[in-house]
Amino acid sequence: MSTIAWIGLGHMGLPMTAHLIAAGHTVRGVDLNPDAAAAAAAHGVTVVGSIAQALVDADACVTSLPMPAHVRAVYDGPDGIWAHARPGTLLLDTSTVDVDTSRWCHDRSDAAGFAFVDAPISGGTAGAEAHTLTFMLGGRAEDLGRVKALVEPMAGTVIACGEATAGIAAKLVNNMMLFIGVMAVAEGSQLAEQLGLDQQVFWKVVSASSGSSWPQRTWYPVPGVVATSAADRNFDATFSVDLARKDCALALQAGEGVGVHLPAAALALSQLDLLVQEGLGHKDCTLVTRFATPDGTLRGYHPSQ
Ligand code: NAD
Description:
By secondary structure, this protein is α/β, with parallel strands linked by helices. The protein has helices at about 15-20, 35-40, 50-55, 70-75, 80-85, 100-110, 125-130, 140-150, 165-195, 200-205, 215-220, 240-260, 265-275, and strands at about 5, 25-30, 45, 60-65, 90-95, 115-120, 120, 135-140, 155-160. Helix content is about 45%, strand content about 15%. Helix 9 packs across helix 13 (about 265-275). The protein starts with a strand and ends in a 28-residue tail after the last helix. The model has no long low-confidence stretch (mean pLDDT about 95). Nicotinamide-adenine-dinucleotide (NAD) binds near residues 9, 30, 96 and 122.
């Protein structure tokens, strides 16, 4: 069994560390938010006050942080991971970051004698709780083997995507496709509504037809059709506008870097931006459905609640 340092015990880090502990590993965790740290301690994480303390005797270190800037800050500097990890420690970042940040983590880890693997995840908080996450790995083949064994208690699927940054590249492309798909479902659901279709019947039609997609099957934004939809919970986030906005922006940034035109992704980002400007960044990303309705109101969404 291993000792694992874990930095970032939020929505994803909390359930993921619980699975590692259930599998018999020791997890030494850090989080700036006392509530997150307390919840992790209740699951059996040994909560410590610094990255240096988390890394004492650690075989591996996992980061699960909100933004690229957090990842850079946690790795670099006199209090960071590179300054305190034992040589040879396996480092993996499960955060969704830009390709350049991931490349920087690989290059600096290589130079300092650490094995770094980009290991972003898909499946949301439900996947983290049910240990059915998909891990997309990028790095050296020998390091990917070590990571596969480590993440197994948290994963439903582990895919070795290729060399350094291949995991994060796959993640960004996947999520860009997801949020373009959300727009299709948003518009389709509201056209069906205004054409007077029974939404449950229409959902069955699409599920068995060529308009089907993961967001259609899982996040259909009309109340009373799919139990996993935010429309049944006043569009409280299963995947927040803020996180969706971050992922779309990072995909567009990657597209600019390689000269690929992404007009649909730009439209998805502009709709998410509008929700953020309205102070709705904490709500579910499927709230973009509001932009398709005739008067901006949306069945299942009550702004005052
Ligand atoms: P979160 O904001 O709930 O958790 C991040 C935690 O990191 C917070 O508790 C925060 O206090 C902590 N933190 C920030 N800076 C820190 C520092 N310097 N030291 C220690 N702790 C620090 O975010 P999340 O939803 O758990 O997501 C984590 C990452 O996983 C993000 O990059 C996100 O894009 C990605 N992701 C999230 C989901 C999802 O559905 N939530 C799905 C797939 C991927």
